[in-house]
Design goal:
Layout lengths: L14 E5 L2 E4 L4 E4 L2 H4 L8 H11 L12 H13 L7 E5 L2 H21 L16 E5 L8 H5 L17 E4 L12 H14 L2 H4 E6 L15 H12 L2 E5 L23 E4 L10 E5 L1 H5 L16 H16 L2 H20 L5 E7 L2 E9 L4 E2 L11 H12 L2 E2 L6 E4 L7 H25 L1
Parallel strand pairs: 3-14, 5-6, 5-7, 7-8, 8-9
Antiparallel strand pairs: 1-2, 2-3, 4-10, 9-10, 11-12, 12-13, 12-15
Length: 446
């Protein structure tokens, strides 16, 4: 079964091999992966250091339950605790997908607040009311995964497949999009969030604020200046936990290990996934020292069979070593700046490009039907409809051998961090041809 798709026309291409940024098919095509395999292969395909680490680990232990300890699992938990913002005295829960890590984060936040109120003498504003904080504030235009809790905490159209049977206890707030702002200023936006938290019960009822520091699937949207810092202050004021979902933006994608580091904001819970495990499914829910201590003597009521999978953790450790020790983080930041400059120059030449935005090697070109009105070529309700965006994506795939997602709201430019100058030139030439096509299709439609 193909994800998020009707099945009648499912016709995947058979792959012979992968290497670097490229997918080689059995019929002789060589396709550049401009989406980094759903943002899972930041280091490209078949990185030799990661493959060597996986081979070595397979000779010792691939998997045991968490009643036992393995060196790579322990070492990875320690490494993540040191690399992420805040005290290194964190604890890490491992699972196999970003959605599963989100589920763990939501449950951890609610259990932390339960312990705070009932075991630790935490402050409540209205003791005569139900005092257990359980609500999660998330945002429209967010995506946190397809499991029940994660999808319910998402503002993406894929949530609609689950309605009306979404998990209760989630409140969706407006997103923060500088290109399409809902408020005249950041201060006004933060004032509204403060009002929303109060109206939802404040510290009596609200457990956490969940957000992507840079919105991923719904448009690679960077927050306006001061927004993330303001949300952190609101969480402190109301005793809420700040959960940051770095599933797509972690592991060097934005030029730093985590995207949140660009704003020097310290979260209470960090979610990592996708590229963390390189070629093995692996995700992590990283609990700050404050949150982790809540479970020293109270149950962490969550778990999965393959938690802490030693083989996946060995691959993740090798990936981090490549990022940090081999200088790929710094290289990615430089390449990202170059890519952004090229994309912005390209966007200025085509009336179909409304906005070019991104950070590191995480970029999008939002396509619009009119520059003045910012009329989108694909509305939220048209995520799976055939629009000009879909035609442009198909053109890149079939005519230019460049693989980009077809369900976004523009052109997705998310190459592996190892992209070289020749490959970047190849991609930019293909994107220019795609924009020429988009301009022509819009003119023909109008």
């Amino acid at each position: 079964m193909q994800c998020w798709s009707a099945q009648a026309d499912y016709a995947p291409l058979a792959v012979e091999k992968t290497e670097g940024c490229w997918i080689h098919t059995v019929d002789g095509r060589r396709i550049f992966d401009l989406r980094s395999a759903h943002e899972c292969i930041n280091l490209g395909f078949n990185h030799p250091k990661v493959l060597a680490a996986l081979r070595a680990q397979m000779e010792t232990v691939c998997y045991v339950t968490d009643d036992f300890a393995t060196a790579p699992t322990a070492a990875l938990a320690e490494r993540l605790s040191e690399l992420t913002p805040g005290s290194p005295e964190k604890k890490v829960y491992f699972c196999q997908s970003g959605a599963a890590a989100v589920e763990a984060a939501i449950k951890a936040a609610r259990l932390y607040q339960y312990n705070r109120v009932f075991h630790d003498g935490g402050v409540v504003d209205a003791p005569s009311q139900y005092p257990y904080p359980y609500k999660i504030i998330s945002r429209y235009q967010s995506w946190h995964g397809s499991s029940s809790g994660a999808a319910s905490a998402s503002g993406d159209p894929r949530r609609w497949f689950q309605e009306p049977l979404t998990v209760p206890g989630v409140v969706l707030a407006p997103g923060a999009n500088p290109y399409r702002p809902h408020f005249p200023t950041v201060e006004a936006h933060l004032d509204y969030l403060d009002h929303l938290i109060e109206q939802e019960g404040g510290r009596n009822k609200v457990a956490a604020f969940l957000l992507e520091p840079i919105v991923g699937s719904n448009g690679i949207i960077l927050p306006p200046d001061g927004y993330l810092e303001g949300v952190r202050r609101l969480c402190d004021r109301w005793d809420l936990l700040l959960i940051v979902d770095e599933t797509m933006t972690g592991m060097g994608r934005t030029g730093k290990f985590l995207a949140i580091e660009h704003w020097e904001v310290e979260p209470d819970i960090i979610i990592m996934g996708k590229a963390l495990g390189a070629y093995c499914p692996l995700a992590a829910t990283i609990l700050s020292e404050k949150v982790a201590r809540s479970f020293d003597h109270h149950l962490f009521g969550h778990g999965q069979s393959y938690s802490g999978h030693a083989l996946a953790c060995a691959g993740a450790l090798a990936s981090i070593d490549v990022l940090v020790s081999d200088g790929l983080l710094e290289e990615g930041a430089v390449k990202g700046q170059q890519l952004g400059e090229h994309l912005k120059a390209l966007g200025e030449q085509h009336p179909c490009v409304g906005d070019v935005r991104g950070l590191g090697l995480f970029w999008t070109m939002e396509l619009v039907g009119d520059l003045e009105t910012k009329k989108p070529l694909r509305k939220t309700t048209e995520k799976y409809e055939k629009t000009i965006v879909k035609e442009v994506s198909d053109f890149l795939f079939h005519e230019r051998n460049v693989y980009v997602p077809s369900d976004k709201f523009g052109l997705w430019v998310v190459p592996p961090l190892i992209i070289d100058e020749d490959e970047m030139a190849f991609v930019l030439e293909a994107l220019e041809a795609a924009l020429v096509l988009a301009d022509r299709l819009i003119a023909k439609r109008d």
